[in-house]
């Protein structure tokens, strides 16, 4: 254990060098926890974890997990590591099931072996598929349209079984579309290749790509483009902290939908980016991307009522503004 972290609860952040995980590492430190990061750096960046201990290794590697759980008194695990692209998961399902399900199973088994009883899981709106009704609450039927969503729903189901059999309590946080960047400008989104709408639009604004392609204009939405509920990465971190406190206080397993409850179409996001950046952004029309539902909008009431979670950066202009500041710093 690092001397300076003695007495602070240790939290293993798997995937902590990635986009959302790195923001969480910073927030845990600020909140008085001692984060320990496991990441294979396939997407993550060493610089993004600051001075937290970083173990560069595979999530599914028992020998690495044994060393970590023996070296630090881990009170809880936050699991951000997975493959994350909806479209790619349709083309490469085996890779998605292997990394997102098999490797997560290895992590859960190691937690049982080492008697680490608390787990916070990065789940997704993609478990719901094409919604039967909006906004989507926690009870909405689960009918994922793509292997990515199916892999996350499989893990959620495994977690129910692990609670019953082994007493491993978990909180599944189903993010809608994560967006924005650290308001202090130290961290942001850095995927390679970048596929998420807002950073792609901002790369076009910055001149790092010529244009942004809109994947389908024939959806059953008012302007024909897909609607998503964008949620600021800092607000996701707040929800994780509240979920962690609940589990540390002895709370039961739970699952929450995390969004603002407001949907924006692709057109609206591009218009907002033009306003925020003051730059013209060239748009090209393309075909639909496989596996995309037309609309995903969260009902976040349960997280408000149970965890006391209230998003602080719900304005789409703030999300794009923070992401734009990061793009200009690093692009
Ligand atoms: N970004 C979103 O909009 C969004 C929405 C819903 C859910 N999620 C979920 O949130 C989590 C984090 O997403 P993100 O956008 O920060 O992704 P990311 O790719 O930026 O971060 C994932 C991190 O996990 C690491 N990783 C992947 N496989 C690994 C393995 N086998 N062993 C060790 N490390 C591994 C990567 O190097 C990366 O640093 C993911 O589980 C994702 O499915 C993201
Ligand atoms: O260059 C682009 C990129 C995206 N889109 C569209 O924009 C919308 C949002 O796409 P994207 O930013 O890739 O996010 P999603 O596919 O909605 O998936 C994100 O949000 C999900 C939850 O809703 C998470 O589970 C996933 O991990 C995360 O990648 C979709 O309709 C895309 O087809 C475009 O039209 N052009």
From TrEMBL:
The entry's keywords: Carbohydrate metabolism, Isomerase, NAD
Pathway: Carbohydrate metabolism; galactose metabolism
ATP-binding recorded as keyword: no
Cofactor(s) this protein cannot do without: NAD(+)
One MF annotation (Gene Ontology) recorded for this entry: UDP-glucose 4-epimerase activity
Catalytic reaction annotation: UDP-alpha-D-glucose = UDP-alpha-D-galactose
Enzyme class: isomerase
Domain NAD-dependent epimerase/dehydratase as annotated: residue spans: 11-259
UniProt-listed Enzyme Commission number(s): 5.1.3.2
Family: Belongs to the NAD(P)-dependent epimerase/dehydratase family.
Quaternary structure note: Homodimer.
Protein name stated in the entry: UDP-glucose 4-epimerase
